[in-house]
Write a structure and sequence with these properties.
9 strands; Rossmann fold; 12% strand; 312 residues; homodimer; alpha/beta; 3-stranded mixed beta sheet; 6-stranded parallel beta sheet; globular; 6-phosphogluconate dehydrogenase C-terminal fold
Chain lengths: 312, 312
């Protein structure tokens, strides 16, 4: 946390899409006290709006995103990336010069492609991606501590105003995140391997299970061992969000998938021919990466302070 | 827990292999008080023996497994399944009639194949498999609560003595497990999907990451997002144990792998051709399985009472 702040960093923070990430941001910003004088949220789902009001985690709640962004000096898109084009066309022209427009999507090149054409001169478009989340959806799933100690990647275009980047970085730092600046294509490639491919594989294997004969399917669920259990968690994530990720990060995902398939075929062959040496060699080599992940302190899933993890 | 027990269920419980599972059993049995009058443990690793003595979690600690099983009325093999043949040849002839011989291996058909030929008449061979574990190894990694609320599958041969099965089931029930009886081939098929395939895939994808150029590899570790993080945990499991699982459950693993590959290719094609409907349909369908896993209360990883999860 920075020194105690006397004036708000933003006058009006507009959060478009109030699900897991959006509602975690509004909670965290409100909890921090002086980051934004007003937190306005919008969602197209009436049930989400009702819950957002009932939870009292925003200063104003809007069905109309145009009403939420009016006079905002920071706008955060927290909707599936498939909505970016139409949202940008609708909202960007309303923004005043100096306003920061950012997002939290899992892929970044698309932000520039879909949103930039609509952005008026003087508005700072700074795509972003917090590496934080759970498999849950909706405003009830959010919590203020979601971003603590997590990376928040920003992929500003090369000509972006450094002062605007620093202002946005301060916002995310003050709710606990570690901000990193990165090239958008590089981001999409790294995430294709660390996040998109694991989700695709999890959806696949859980899908494979749903096609088993009924008796065995029930036992697969009953005796879900370590491994399958983790995969079902990933495969329980928001379907629309993930559909959009795969449709919009196609090249990077297909490239990593190709590498993965080759490596899997190599192990498949080792199993078929009883080549224990090849198996043990790889199984030992992978431990180095695990050690790195633990050292980077990214091994513990985020969790709210007052709830046990993974209850539902 | 059953009614308070006045006489021990076993006079001498011998645990061969004192790693994560073996040391969790000895802890749990000693903590339960009256389950075994004496807990003897053996391991071929001198460092494991030293730690087992220092932790004071067994009544006697042996380098020689023959010394541990002498006069035992229950013997539990907790070593990698690749050791079963030679261990059985060495130990089974020493067992007295009435003794129960069991194991905790992840595959079950091999137990009958490798061990049964060595077992003298009157000794009860009852293969077993607790669906519990973490990715850690060694006697320091064990904890008494590992089996609480977890399934413990027994795959006794059709002609096995029901009284012996019930006696062994009581032992595992009294340390918190839910005992299920199952056919060995069926067990190996279900576990191929729920455990073996997820581990194989995790080893593969983490292996794919180790082959990236150094700069990207470091960023994959640093920005390990949800997904990859879980996969590195599975890929940090004991390499020798998993080598043996794949070598000895070849047919079931290859069959499930084949199904998985077909399903993955189907999704790959949907991504390549931008078929969002197919993606969303599958991503929605998999949620049903997640719900089932949560309802079966198998979604929360086991953890020791006095330690936060996944610290190391």
């Amino acid at each position: 946390m920075a020194d105690v702040r006397t004036t708000p960093l933003f006058h009006r923070l507009a959060i478009i899409g109030h699900g897991l990430i959006g509602s975690s941001i509004s909670r965290a910003v409100r909890q921090a006290g002086t980051l934004a004088a007003h937190v306005a949220v919008a969602d197209s789902d009436a049930a989400y709006l009702d819950r957002s009001r009932a939870l009292d985690i925003a200063d104003s709640v809007h069905a109309d995103p145009q009403a939420a962004v009016k006079d905002a000096d920071c706008v955060v898109l927290c909707t599936p990336v498939g909505t970016y084009g139409s949202l940008a066309a609708q909202l960007a022209p309303l923004l005043q010069p100096g306003t920061i427009l950012t997002d939290v999507g899992s892929i970044k090149r698309i932000v520039t492609a879909e949103i930039a054409p609509h952005v008026p001169a003087g508005v700072h478009l700074i795509p972003g991606h917090p590496l934080a989340g759970t498999e849950k959806s909706g405003p009830d799933a959010g919590f203020a501590e979601l971003f603590e100690g997590r990376y928040w990647i920003l992929t500003p275009p090369p000509d972006c105003d450094p002062a605007a980047i620093e202002r946005l970085a301060s916002l995310w730092r003050e709710i606990g995140a570690i901000v990193e600046i990165m090239d958008e294509d590089y981001h999409d490639k790294v995430l294709a391997l660390t996040s998109h491919l694991p989700h695709l594989i999890s959806y696949t294997i859980v899908g494979t299970a749903t096609d088993l004969e009924e008796h065995m399917k029930q036992d697969v669920i009953r005796f879900a061992a370590s491994g399958f259990r983790d995969f079902t968690r990933l495969a329980g994530s928001n379907p629309v969000m993930w559909r959009d990720v795969f449709l919009n990060n196609r090249e990077a995902v297909l490239e990593m998938l190709q590498r993965f398939q080759e490596d899997l075929t190599y192990l498949q062959r080792a199993i078929r021919w009883g080549d224990g040496e090849t198996l043990e060699k790889l199984f030992t080599r992978t431990r180095e990466i695990r050690r790195g992940v633990i050292d980077a302190k990214q091994d513990i899933p985020p969790q709210p302070k007052d709830l046990p993890p993974e209850q539902s």
